[in-house]
Write the structure tokens for this entry.
Amino acid sequence: MAGTVIGEGLTIEGEVVTEEEVVVNGTVRGTLSSGDLVSVGAGGVIEADVQAASLSVAGQVTGNVNAQDRIDIQAGGRLVGDVKAARLTIADGASFKGNVDMDV
Amino acid sequence: MTPRPRCISVGRRKPMARHRADISVLGASSRITGNVRGAGGLRVEGSVKGEVTVDGPVEIAGGATVAGNVEGESLDLEGILEGDASVSGPIRVGARATATGTFRSSQVTIEPGARVALQLDNDFELDLGPARRGR
């Protein structure tokens, strides 16, 4: 069970800072910072800059993402924004638009 | 010797909705500056500085802080609330809770030990005790 779960139908507008895993099935607008994994469920929407240990996207993310470890965009997931991460996977059926910085 | 009353209680009694699948949780290390609104219930374990408006039950856990007004179906407070609460159902203020503001609800329960500076704005009928219930 993740530390923070933003359920379907819930919207947070503002700044979210946490050390725990975050599951987004609702909507976050503003900024989101987590010391752990951020997963965006199929119905989840993030319209925010994201700072996280890693990010998994099955829903929609619009904003710049900085992940210490990895970013996984899953089938059906959509990410629009510049990403910075050591590892990036874009699954078949995922959409992505933006620049990638893998710190090479 | 009659036992001491365990809590101060006014208003209609109504069971709290529990175990709903659409509950959101803001974990213990989560700090939110901004507004939280939408459908379903909400359990706050961290801190929220802003308005909380949901249509389900709201739980503010021990160690959690909400600085802002709260609207929901019910409120279960074990942490700190600095703001007004307006709910359609009951409000419970636990023994370790701190609350300042105005409470509007169908029922308020304040357990002994709670620290409150509250204005209560309730529509209620006098509770005449267990002997008179079930008429």
